[in-house]
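tokens incoming
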């Protein structure tokens, strides 16, 4: 998991001149040829990188990125004109896909691995939320849970 965080942080710190040169902040700027981003660093899930930049940063070819999208491995945002816009999160995912493909995993296997990793991350987030005490209990929820456990497991 730390790999993803390091990868995302690396792209957040990416040279602003490269980001400004290759990204488009909205359709008006695109039509005007203005390549400046809004002030500050884009959110990790904000699509700002075009396909050629994403391909270069991830180490995969543009055709590979299109194929990965077709297989549902990555879902980049789209501009109003339909252009793919990849976020830092997408780039981290593409890096993981590239690693798995290089290790000899086929795309169906990559999809399964990514699904399991996503499920695992969601479960870890749930565990952290529960441990922090932000459970959001409803009155009687413990009793209902206990009854469900007893119903599911007659020996309890």
């Amino acid at each position: 998991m730390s790999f993803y965080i390091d990868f995302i942080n690396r792209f957040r710190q990416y040279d602003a001149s490269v980001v400004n040169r290759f990204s488009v902040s909205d359709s008006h700027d695109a039509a005007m040829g203005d390549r400046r981003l809004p002030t500050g660093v884009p959110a990790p899930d904000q699509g700002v990188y075009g396909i050629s930049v994403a391909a270069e940063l991830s180490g995969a070819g543009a055709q590979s990125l299109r194929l990965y999208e077709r297989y549902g491995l990555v879902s980049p945002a789209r501009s109003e004109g339909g252009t793919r816009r990849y976020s830092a999160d997408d780039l981290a995912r593409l890096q993981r896909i590239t690693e798995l493909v290089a290790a000899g995993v086929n795309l169906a296997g990559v999809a399964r691995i990514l699904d399991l990793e996503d499920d695992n991350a969601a479960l870890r987030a749930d565990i952290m939320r529960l441990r922090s005490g932000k459970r959001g209990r409803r009155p009687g929820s413990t009793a209902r849970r206990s009854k469900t456990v007893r119903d599911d497991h007659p020996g309890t």
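note: The longest strand covers residues 77-78.
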